[in-house]
Amino acid sequence: MQKILIEGGHPLNGKVRISGAKNSAVALLPAAILADSAVTIEGLPNISDVETLSDLLEEIGGTVSRQDNNITIDPANMVAMPLPNGKVKKLRASYYFMGAMLGKFGKAVIGLPGGCFLGPRPIDQHIKGFEALGATVTNEQGAIYLRAEELRGARIYLDVVSVGATINIMLAAVRAKGKTVIENAAKEPEIIDVATLLSNMGAKIKGVGTDVIRIEGVPSLEGCTHTIIPDRIEAGTYAIAAAAQGEEVIIDNVIPQHIESLIAKLREMGVTVEDGDEQLLIRPGKTFKSVDIKTLVYPGFPTDLQQPFTSLLTKAEQTGVVTDTIYSARLKHIDELRRMNAIIKVEGGSVIVSGPSQLEGAKVKASDLRAGAALIVAGLMANGVTEITGVDHIDRGYEQITEKLSELGARIWREEMTDEEIIQLQNS
Ligand code: EPU
């Protein structure tokens, strides 16, 4: 087990290239189950969530071959193997095996997913969708059992705008008989990416990117090659890091429109952000104005950038208020930032950050993926050395984060943890 160490205060300069989108990747891989021939996905990020899903595809009989960042999945020998335990528990997105296997085989057994603890993360809307399509869904000893004699298109209104439910229902509906309409659908770019893959496979989908998605089921889907979109959350994380500790940083392979809400907030703070076709240039000023942020569904400010942005706010004059309307309990980074000298409190469900404060290096723990990103941003700004444990969370979602930041001039490195440190971490 490793920890990440950062000696803060060194300026960031140069160019960083953004990898393929994690939250697309974790849906595109299971989507390949639906095809009858090989699907190649190009530009996947090299992160542990992708490895885990590739292993799961192999567990159900898929042939998975990897070349650099491209993965080919041949589903020819896949079977409806139950996956009640094991690797499905390692990440949230294993729930996409439900929609994909239901669509392909008419049945699936999938253990309830794991992933970051962000407060309650129900999947009732996924289940509502599967049932509307004609599936019987039961929860038996922590695994979801799905069965359908025949999937039939249906009109499904999502009570909550959900990325996962929208994609999962889409996965099942593309091979259902007849027409499905998903109302109050999520509009995130990752949903468009998954729909693009499915359409290339032969699915008939209209309206993605709006809140009404219409799907005409088809009897079979074929393999194809698909290139993944860049990771808007990784791009946003580097933009925040560049604002926090950069002189001039270019973020390459980004679709600026995907993070317009972040760019607007950075500009409000006084950071210069220039956008090109696939690049962003970030140049912070000497001082930062505080801003308030409220996370919302896309295109609002993403919940996944709330935690790293909170670290940046410690550098701003006066008080900024952060409210997460998607995951109100996504607050595990707060105590750790306080350990680093941040003046920060939680009041009435919002995080209040007073600044500017000079952060100090400390021993801190990443308890979820984006909390880890927040602590890295804080470590870059802090005096002295910050030691971050819980690195496996970070490696689930950021490809080569220590290498990419080192290239930009950060003093950041990994060390193996001692047995004593591992025991301490497990008990904390
Ligand atoms: N919700 C329900 N019922 C459901 C589904 C969701 O009440 O059946 C609620 C959730 O509790 C939450 C809101 O709806 O309050 C939105 O949840 P959503 O379903 O959109 O989240 P998700 O699909 O489980 C994905 C990303 C998250 C990201 C959220 C919101 C993946 C694998 N995960 O989760 O990414 O925070 O959308 O944008 O795509 C991350 O990358 O760090 C991460 C956690």
UniProtKB/TrEMBL annotation:
<keyword id="KW-0808">Transferase</keyword>
<dbReference type="InterPro" id="IPR005750">
    <property type="entry name" value="UDP_GlcNAc_COvinyl_MurA"/>
</dbReference>
<feature type="domain" description="Enolpyruvate transferase">
    <location>
        <begin position="7"/>
        <end position="405"/>
    </location>
</feature>
<feature type="modified residue" description="2-(S-cysteinyl)pyruvic acid O-phosphothioketal">
    <location>
        <position position="116"/>
    </location>
</feature>
<feature type="binding site">
    <location>
        <begin position="22"/>
        <end position="23"/>
    </location>
    <ligand>
        <name>phosphoenolpyruvate</name>
    </ligand>
</feature>
<keyword id="KW-0573">Peptidoglycan synthesis</keyword>
<dbReference type="GO" id="GO:0008760">
    <property type="term" value="F:UDP-N-acetylglucosamine 1-carboxyvinyltransferase activity"/>
</dbReference>
<feature type="active site" description="Proton donor">
    <location>
        <position position="116"/>
    </location>
</feature>
<keyword id="KW-0670">Pyruvate</keyword>
<comment type="similarity">
    <text>Belongs to the EPSP synthase family. MurA subfamily.</text>
</comment>
<dbReference type="InterPro" id="IPR013792">
    <property type="entry name" value="RNA3'P_cycl/enolpyr_Trfase_a/b"/>
</dbReference>
<keyword id="KW-0131">Cell cycle</keyword>
<feature type="binding site">
    <location>
        <begin position="121"/>
        <end position="125"/>
    </location>
    <ligand>
        <name>UDP-N-acetyl-alpha-D-glucosamine</name>
    </ligand>
</feature>
<dbReference type="InterPro" id="IPR036968">
    <property type="entry name" value="Enolpyruvate_Tfrase_sf"/>
</dbReference>
<feature type="binding site">
    <location>
        <position position="304"/>
    </location>
    <ligand>
        <name>UDP-N-acetyl-alpha-D-glucosamine</name>
    </ligand>
</feature>
<keyword id="KW-0132">Cell division</keyword>
<dbReference type="Pfam" id="PF00275">
    <property type="entry name" value="EPSP_synthase"/>
</dbReference>
<protein>
    <recommendedName>
        <fullName>UDP-N-acetylglucosamine 1-carboxyvinyltransferase</fullName>
        <ecNumber>2.5.1.7</ecNumber>
    </recommendedName>
</protein>
<dbReference type="InterPro" id="IPR001986">
    <property type="entry name" value="Enolpyruvate_Tfrase_dom"/>
</dbReference>
<dbReference type="InterPro" id="IPR050068">
    <property type="entry name" value="MurA_subfamily"/>
</dbReference>
<feature type="binding site">
    <location>
        <position position="92"/>
    </location>
    <ligand>
        <name>UDP-N-acetyl-alpha-D-glucosamine</name>
    </ligand>
</feature>
<comment type="pathway">
    <text>Cell wall biogenesis; peptidoglycan biosynthesis.</text>
</comment>
<comment type="function">
    <text>Cell wall formation. Adds enolpyruvyl to UDP-N-acetylglucosamine.</text>
</comment>
<keyword id="KW-0961">Cell wall biogenesis/degradation</keyword>
<feature type="binding site">
    <location>
        <position position="326"/>
    </location>
    <ligand>
        <name>UDP-N-acetyl-alpha-D-glucosamine</name>
    </ligand>
</feature>
<keyword id="KW-0963">Cytoplasm</keyword>
<keyword id="KW-0133">Cell shape</keyword>
